Amino acid sequence: MVARVVTVAFQGVEARRVDVEVQLTGGEAIMVVVGLGDKAVAESRERVRGAFTGLGLAMPGKRIVVNLAPADLPKEGSHYDLPIALAVMAAMGVIPPDALTGWAAVGELSLDGSIAPVAGTLPAAVAAGAMDLGLICPEACGAEAAWAGGTRIIAPRSLIGLINHFRGTQMLSEPKPGPMVEGARVPDLRDVRGQEQAKRALEIAAAGGHNLLFSGPPGSGKSMLAQRLPGILPPLSAAELLETSMIHSVAGLIARGELTRARPFRAPHHSASMAALTGGGLKAKPGEVSLAHNGVLFLDELPEFTALMAQTHQGPR
Prior knowledge:
CATH architecture of the largest domain: 2-Layer Sandwich
Largest sheet: 4 strands, mixed
Order of helices and strands: EEEHEHEEEHEHEHHHHEHHEH
Number of strands: 11
Strand order of the largest sheet: 1-2-4-3
Number of domains: 2
Shape: elongated
Distance between the termini: 59 Å
Radius of gyration: 24 Å
Structural class: alpha/beta
């Protein structure tokens, strides 16, 4: 028998469906994970084994084959621990196999069986809702996932609580969305005296979503004026809030499910690397440009960024 659980793989902020398939076969009692996973996915074997030991569950004395399909899609991160553990328990008969129908799962396992938080829970919940599935996620991420709206959410603290829920001995309540917090007071144009032409340029840029370049001698107020651009921007709309929060969720910047309608304001130093500015890397994390989506990206001392980029393109000497 093959047990299946749905999870997701992240490509940027997009969450793509991944089917976790587990089969118990004869042979040496080991767990094999296939499906183009990275080191964190390979290490999930030991975390799952340790979590089972922490709960007093014995791994089956059979060869356990875990397939992450589609096989040509790269899988990265520790959020595959929970769906792998659920599929193994379904194959063992610890939980009813049909109990996982209609659910996707993300979460990292600790060795005592508790479920640790992971990044990207909000886009995972949105993707689960688009697939007409509910989402099982860590308790610490439940308030964040609940912002997806219309998606059923279960947020257990540990594997034992989830087992009891599926067996019907303990019912887990659906988490509520986290609070909508007010951002810190942002300086605005009320603090500026004079500079009427520059303030007019700021207002036009804010109204039309235009780029803005200030040029002038040191001490003329360029940085002071640019830092006040967020203060005259309107709050994020509902659609913009979801877009921006999904990016911040993948970057792991949402704490306790708290969202804010304040516009992002990112001001990287001119010594920041190209990867820090544009994102990317082995796990394709958002950079400062992406984190400023629907907000303001403030590049102070812009010519210094040009020099850095020129050195990056030239490469080492």
